[in-house]
Amino acid sequence: MRLALLGGILVACTCAIAGTFVVLRGLAFVGDALAHGVLPGIATAMLLGFSGIVGAAIGAAVMMGGVSVVTRKFRLSGDTAIGLLFVGMLSLGVMITSRSSSFVGDLARILFGELLGITQSDLAWQCVALAIVAAIALVSRRPFLLLSVDDGLARTSGFSARLFHNVMLTMVAITVIASFQTVGTLLVLGMLIAPAATGSLFARRIESMMFIAAIVGSLSTYIGLLISYHYDLAAGASIVLTAVVIFALAAIANEIRKSRSHDHHDHEHPHVHGEVHVR
Amino acid sequence: MTSIHASALAIGYGKHPVVDNISISLQPGDLLVLIGTNGSGKSTLLKTLAGLIDPLHGDLTLLGSPAGQMPTRVAYLPQHPVSSHTLPLCVQDVVAMGRFAHLGLFKRSTDRDRAIVLESMQRTGIDSRANEPIRDLSGGQQQRTHLAQVIARQAEILLLDEPTAGLDLNGRKAVAELIATERARGVTVVLATHELADAESATAVMLLAQRVVSMGSPAEALRDEYLRECFGFTQPH
User: How far apart are CA A75 and CA B104, in angstroms?
Assistant: First the structure.
């Protein structure tokens, strides 16, 4: 249980960093596709008996390369290319897994994770992934911020939008690969998005958004594990659902806070409503 | 050195020219005002000057280099800057992004960078909101923030696409003063606008309607026959 909690917190911290940029740049669909794109790689690794992490890395590389090629060569919009690759890779993953003698068990383990079966070697991998993701975010924080506003702003500031977009995708892929053991490929998107989205409600700086996301993710891990233990429920799903519920509660609290502050402002300044626009 | 030089320049998207045969020669401190209806080619020309779109053919240099090669010396304000309404960033952080071209990946921001950011916010009148999230500001205040970001670049060429959009009368006056101050410092400004009044202090005006209708001093370029051709009406005298 202690290893599971540690593993969950490491995943929460990794997802907080990558998820912040996923939310800011609007990459949720790409994140989802990457999470499913690793499925055939992991399934093949399981079938042939090599490392799931290596299989996931190959799957993510194929997914990222495929999206780039389909977008450029066939002049399709990004989301169509991502959608095509997404369902294609997911189907391929399910087909490969169906060759396994323990099809249902293997598929469930890949999709929903096996947090309670986490080992010290998995923890070591997660530490390495956290360090790599943190280093990428630290070095690329300026182009990532500019990309979060606009590709053009990044380019006119002297940064290659394509290069740093791909660096950002690589960071998301590393996060997915490091997290699938814990929450599974299906639910890792929840850990990427829900805590970061909660952070975006309250933060005024990127660093504070990451910090809030890491706290929410870690808290979700703790509460989710408790729920899972006491009610005999799936650990990964309990953690992600807790993160989504925390987001919902935070969003409601934020709306109440904003409407109260609006009422207070109207009371203090009854005739002031922004600028007069003369066009 | 000539700030912007273009000859026989054709601009557009893909292989389709929007405007061709453009010639520009601007010196430090000049103001070129681009006027035209929506879709006339103003924004396409500014994006080409900013290096975001490749020229279809012809010559184009900014400060002696091809467009897009001088990020520290050329600053561009897009027509509708992404308002950053979902970004958890306060105003001063958005303005500080104007310094990133100088800082690159690894340089630490210095006291000088911070002083430039503060001064840019003061000049656009947004300094009192420095610590507020940009998403909580009105459209006009967000526009002032993006203008401050462009000013913070301390570039030698400013490419401004409708910088007064969404601003009230005071905001418009502040932008006009800002442009005048920048020009006095030797900064070359290219300004796209719908407002004929913005052309009064220009060195040159280019009237666009998917071709160059006229180009020259404000008096020459805004003659009645050109305005009628471009907009279907003339200025009241």
Answer: 32
Could you tell me if residue A272 is inside a domain?
no
Select the residue from A136, A157, A273 to test the B interface by mutation, using most B Cβ atoms within 10 A: A157
Could you tell me which of A225, A223, A214, A215 has the C-alpha nearest to residue A2? A225
Instruction: Tell whether the model's pLDDT for residue A117 goes beyond 90.
Output: no
Domain count, chain A: 1
Quote the domain boundaries for residue A137: 2-266
Q: What is the CATH number of the domain that holds A209?
A: 1.10.3470.10
Residue A201, domain member (yes or no): yes
The C-alpha atoms of residue B46 and residue B81 are separated, in whole angstroms, by 14
Q: What is the pTM of this model?
A: 0.84
ipTM: 0.85
Paired strand residues for B192: B34, B161
Cβ–Cβ below 8 Å for B89 and A139: no
Question: Does residue A271 sit within a domain?
Answer: no
A166-196 per-position pLDDT tens digit? 899 889 989 988 887 777 877 788 899 999 9
Whether A16 maps to a domain, the answer reads yes
A16 inside 8 A of chain B by CB: no
Optimal mutation site among A136, A259, A275, interface B, most CBs of chain B within 10 A: A275
* pLDDT, tens only, B167-198: 888 888 888 889 999 999 999 999 998 888 88
> Chain A window 152-211: which residues touch B at a Cβ cutoff of 8 Å?
152-153, 155-159, 199-200, 202-206, 208-209
Q: Are B148 and B121 in contact (CB under 8 A)?
A: yes
Residue numbers in A near B94 (CB within 8 A): 149
